[in-house]
Amino acid sequence: MGDTRRVMDGEQRSTVRPLRPAAPPDGGAGPVPRPRSNPAPDPAEPTAKPAGPQGEPVAVKAKSAEPKVEPATTEAKPADQKAEPAAAEAEPAVEPVAGRRRRVPFAHAVRVPPPRQLAVGAARATRAWSRRPSGRTTLPALFLLALVAATATAGALLVPAAVRKPQPVAVDATTHAPVQGVPQAGVVPGATGVPAGPGATGLPGTPFPTLTATPGGTPTGPVVGPVTPGRPADALAAWAQQVSAATGIPQVAMQAYGYAELVLAQTQRSCQLSWTTLAAIGYVESRHGSANRAILQSNGVAAPEILGAPLDGQGGRSRILDTDQGQLDHDRVYDKALGPMQFIPSTWQEIGADADNDGVKNPHDIDDAALAAGRYLCKGGRNMTIPGDWWGAILSYNDVRRYAQDVFDKADEYGRLSGT
Question: Tens of pLDDT along 177-192?
Fold first, then answer.
């Protein structure tokens, strides 16, 4: 007759009731009820019921006809309220819907390995790849490429900081604004693009003189033609007079430029410096020794002395503190440019020359200044017939592109006017 049990009602009448099925009759799962806390068993009630003669359970009389009522306490309800949220948090990823268990979309998150594990994995993969034929060929090439790139980067940062920027010889007294564009680096000044200088055919009516240099490199002057005491450049008086009339350059300055070219043609043959370049520098710097109302005397010395503005960094000028204790420029605070070719004192002390054999290196003497300027332009093995060397020499004299362009234009003009 099925699984039944006997219970006692309030009137001690035995009734038989079937047990509640464990699942709904239709077989559906249905919502699972939450377990509730069961009251503690009555100690007077036996845990096991005696069996009857046919194996059926024997009904046990209740001690009292009144139903057992559990005392309600104020603490039981708050405990139940706390237990329910905890149970809800225990299963956040499962929802009972229509008899099936459905997973919440964000229940499964992507697990990212820790950085150390990623690094170890990458190292192992790289080591394994390096043992393959392709890795043995590619890996050394990549390492070499990285080494070359690191070397180039270090060189780009360290070399400019280690190399000292060359200081210009002279300071332009007229302008410091750079010209727009790039100078005409493809040519050098002159009527035909190549500087012309005095030589067998370069000095009209005058043969190329033979110069005798002293052990210190200072020439003693031409040995052909009339030898006069004093200034050696006077031997070029006839040639200088003709060129002066064609170009407007003062004759005494023209003699100094031509004589400097002759000296350098013997002492630094590979330079091939033209007098037109020296004359152009002399014009741009001091208008051939006439700046500040000065006049070139017959011995080539400018009177009064030509001194530039203090190089104090104002008005576009460079800032150069005193280097000669005021002996040359009479300024103990800042340097000043000196003479017809506008040398700064520190450069003159290095490159100064004595072209008139008076025993004094005088920056205010056009003869000494022109020869010193030629020596400076020819430094470093420059060949002044090569465009790159010519422009590099002029910019080393004064690193302003407008200045270099003005020198080029004037040197080209002198070459065309003189026909050299």
Answer: 343 334 454 567 753 3
